Amino acid sequence: MNRILIIGGGAAGMLAAGQAAASGAEVVLLEKMQRPGQKIAISGKGRCNLTNSADLPEFINHFGKNGRFLRQAFQHFFNQDLIRFFQEQGLELITERGGRIFPEKGRAPDVVKILRQWLEDLSVSLRPDSAVEKLLLKDGRIEGVLCNGNPVYGKAVILATGGTSYPATGSTGDGYALAESVGHSIVPIRPGLVPVITRGDLARRLTGLHLRNVGVRLTISDPAGDKKSQKKQKKLHAFGELLFMKYGLSGPVILTLSNEIVDALRADKQVNLVLDLKPALDDQKLDARLQRDFLQRHKEPMQSVLRGLMPEKLVQVCLAETGLVADRLAGEVRADERKRLRFWLKNIPFQVTGYRGFKEAIITCGGVSLKEVDPRTMASKCCPGLYLAGELLDLQADTGGYNLQAAFSTGWLAGRSAAEYCNE
Questions:
Q1: Domain shared by 373 and 398, yes or no
Q2: What are residue 302's phi and psi, to 5 degrees?
Q3: In terms of residue numbers, what domain contains 293?
Q4: Residues paired with 355 in a beta bridge
Q5: Which cofactors does the annotated protein need, by name (predicted)?
Q6: What are the Cα distances from residue 9, in Å, to 13, 87, 168?
Q7: Are residues 157 and 223 in the same domain?
């Protein structure tokens, strides 16, 4: 029997199912939810950032030290292949800032609809409401799964259950236990691309404020704070959009730094963020800008002048934090007060004390150890006949379409490889 069973109907699972079927295998896709692709349908705030136009070296670099594992999968099926696939299925795409690629009409459910139709055209047997409880082995090799209490047999199984982020879509971490049951080890999982929690009430006072073009400096250090630990500080810089929440900070620039933040907090490190509202201006240029504004508007109150420097919601916070008086005329501001304002504009401090959970995380960090998966085929090194793909693996990248491309690519390779294994 050359039947392939695929567990999980997300991005990796659907690509795996389609490729396996296109390669001549009989394919059964087991999805525990009523409909496949639910996480795709809400990804990218409902717009679905499918991939990124970055070239291969840059793309891999966004995955950090584990990125090189993806080289084989990307050589088989990469961003231009994915773009061509969707265009051939009638989906028009658009490239936005940072190389991010979306459906032109901005509707993530269109992506799911296309994938489902593609699987139907390839005669993939989709079985919704099918929860897999166990992998079935015979002489140490895969022979099927136990699904809803009943055995379903197949020569190969592709595990593509996703991680634990957005559990309401079906990503509840089932695949980790299944992988462990046949000998795989799991790198500890934690939320990735997730908002962070900050000390104090400054973020709460600014809740809902959305800033663009903000510089963020991240410092990670030992809590002891002695001179030796200061030398061991890790410093990172980022630039982009930021959103204030009642509990802390979110937005693309924070999500990009969050994986480092989560790991640092889990290691009991001290984590501090500093916001730079004027990253395009150094101290000298910013001081010149302030002097010019104060001179030109010397008869206006500071509250009015500050509105030209920052959103209105930030003005009252700025006045409170710097000690400037709202109705003081700009022409009366002293040099030391201007210096205090200049420093605050480029150095708004936040101590990070925690991070939000999997319900708000875009991805899951950690997962099945890459040492136990063959990057040339996505085959398990622990159990013949088992293949693994997608977010279940210990792969995580920045925002921008990288993670979804990895799911599509590893799924594509797992499906093709499983079909070849069944035809041996």
A1: yes
A2: -55, -40
A3: 195-356
A4: 196
A5: FAD
A6: 5, 21, 14
A7: no
**pLDDT (tens digit per residue) in 176-224:** 999 999 999 999 999 999 999 999 999 999 999 999 999 999 999 998 6
Is the same domain home to 350 and 369?
no
Token pair listed for 149: 């209490």
26 and 168 assigned to the same domain: yes
Judge if 217 and 283 occupy the same domain.
yes
Cβ-based neighbours of 97, under 8 Å, separated by 6 or more: none
- E strands, 39-185, are 51-52, 93-95, 100-103, 125-127, 132-138, 141-147, 150-153, 156-159
Question: Which residues does residue 272 pair with via DSSP β-bridges, in sequence order?
Answer: 219, 351
Distances (CA, A) of 27 to 113, 178, 237, 402: 19, 20, 46, 27
Look at the chain and report how many structural domains it folds into. Answer: 2
pTM higher than the cut 0.85: yes
**Tokens matching residue 151:** 């055995």
Residue pair 70/407 in contact (Cβ under 8 Å)? The answer is no
**Nearest CA to 184 among 5, 365, 7, 373?**
373
| Terminal C-alpha separation, the chain | 11
Are both 339 and 249 inside the same structural domain? yes
In degrees and rounded to multiples of 5, residue 289 shows phi and psi of -65, -45
- Cβ neighbours of residue 60 closer than 8 Å, sequence gap 6 or more: 67, 68, 70, 71, 74
